[in-house]
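quick one, 180 residues, struct below
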Amino acid sequence: MTRWWFLLITMIPLVLQGVPYQDTKEQLSIMRNDLRNLEVGFQQLKQHVSNQDVTLESVQNEVTASTKAQKSQTLDSALNDLLKEIREIKTHANKLADEIETNRKKNLQLETDFSTLQNALNSVMDALGIDSSSGKFYTVKPGDSLGGIAYKNKTTIPALKKANRLKGDKIFVGQKLKLP
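---
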């Protein structure tokens, strides 16, 4: 609708100037050609803008894909670091488990050795004719403590320690303690 107004406004001065009909017709034809050329230029510009929009969308998609790839790469790197730490922790845990098992075996061996020594001591006491059942000696049982043994036998912890030359409060199951 705008172009008809443009043509009408352009034609009025020509008619008022007394330009012959043929000249007006030629100028009208020229203006139509110019208008067509402008429309073609406008369509080309519109197509160019459309192409630019497609290019812009393509660039935006590439940026989005690149950002996702970078985030994924960063996430993969963090995940790999975490997995590496987990493997190191597992290795350390396995080493600790091995050390615990080794110490448990050593402890069992020490208990066996202590029991053997206790039996040897009992044999020596029997060979020397020392009667451990006469009430002069007490054999340590599981759950016993120096305090409990002293209380049961109406004595004190320091007296038990002195009679058995104990430097600490540690006693062992099967150990024979001399009662004061």
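The chain is about 75% helix and 5% strand.
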